[in-house]
Design brief:
With about 300 residues, this protein is an alpha/beta fold. The chain has one domain: Alpha/Beta hydrolase fold, catalytic domain (Rossmann fold), CATH 3.40.50. The protein has 13 helices and eight strands. Strands 1-2-4-3-5-6-7-8 form an eight-stranded mixed sheet, with helices on both faces. The radius of gyration is 18 Å and the shape is globular.
Length: about 300
């Protein structure tokens, strides 16, 4: 177990709420419901999704937040169980007076958190948008998830330096004050370590979801990113990359078919880590389409 600390510089928007003795960051815009709530992937934080959030807030309430131990929220031991994060999010939304039901938008690890939220609080969820994420049937279509060793400080420092251009490009259209804050945050060793810690117990995600039983039927749109992250090109052979694409199609086809109102959309021009900046219009449209179906 490890803990993280909030960055020294404060974010110029949003509010902090005390949940079980931990200060959690939440930013909301817009009015109406169902509210749309974004669940970041490992290593990501709420403001990664500011571009989609701004689109959503034109027609309903949109919520960005940082899980405990990440971003601008207070310290937490990492990694955490899916249930811990789901319960924390529900308490935060209640404290911020964002009424249920919600349309959850999960990205990567955020999809596993969304699945657990649906298991625990089905009446609180109107629908889910899954952005290229982990779900409980992963290993029926994909290579087994493995526990990942957290790299040492030197390796994390190298990753942060090599990522500078990626983050500057990713947040190029963000307001300057927020863009600079996000880039500076992600170039720290602490931020890289947080992402590595969150990813370090991957097999436990699947075990927890499966052990909890079936996920209640909830309208959904699943989105697959077929583009390849730069790191994946280095770590995987062309054959493995082809298998990855094929496996993801099968996985999310099955997820969409598992509920009466499910849909699978494939994004050929989007990569896993940057799906919301590679194809923002398509992601924003999926969120709006699902919201209109359930509102």
């Amino acid at each position: 177990m490890d803990t993280t600390t909030r960055p020294a510089r404060q974010v110029p928007l949003g509010h902090f709420y005390d949940i079980d003795g931990r200060s959690l960051f939440l930013h909301r815009s817009g009015d109406g419901g169902p509210a749309v709530v974004f669940l970041p992937g490992a290593g990501a934080i709420g403001l990664h999704y500011l571009n989609i959030h701004q689109s959503v807030s034109r027609y309903t309430t949109s919520v960005l937040y940082d899980r405990g131990g990440t971003g601008w929220s207070g310290p937490a031991g990492l990694p955490r169980s899916l249930a811990e994060v789901a319960v924390e999010l529900r308490e935060l939304l209640r404290a911020a007076e964002v009424p249920a039901p919600y349309v959850l938008v999960g990205h990567s690890l955020g999809c596993a958190y969304a699945r657990r939220f649906v298991q625990l609080f089905p009446a609180d969820v109107a629908g889910v948008v899954y952005l290229d994420g982990v779900v409980e049937d992963w290993e029926t279509c994909m290579p087994p998830l493995r526990s990942q060793k957290v790299p040492g400080t030197a390796a994390l420092r190298l990753v942060s330096l090599l990522s500078r251009g990626v983050y500057r490009k990713m947040f190029a259209s963000w307001p300057p004050g927020i863009r600079d804050l996000l880039v500076a945050h992600h170039l720290t060793v602490a931020a890289q370590r947080t992402g590595a810690l969150e990813r370090s117990n991957q097999p436990e995600w699947l075990h927890e979801l499966k052990a909890a039983g079936t996920v209640p039927d909830t309208p959904l749109i699943a989105m697959t990113a077929l583009g390849i992250d730069p790191a994946m090109r280095v770590l995987m052979s062309p054959k493995k990359l082809r298998q990855l694409r094929t496996g993801k199609r099968r996985l999310y086809d099955a997820l969409a078919a598992s509920v009466p109102h499910g849909e699978h959309r494939v994004l050929g021009g989007a990569r896993h880590s940057t799906i919301t900046t590679d194809c923002p219009e398509a992601v924003a449209q999926a969120v709006r389409d699902l919201w209109q179906r359930v509102c």
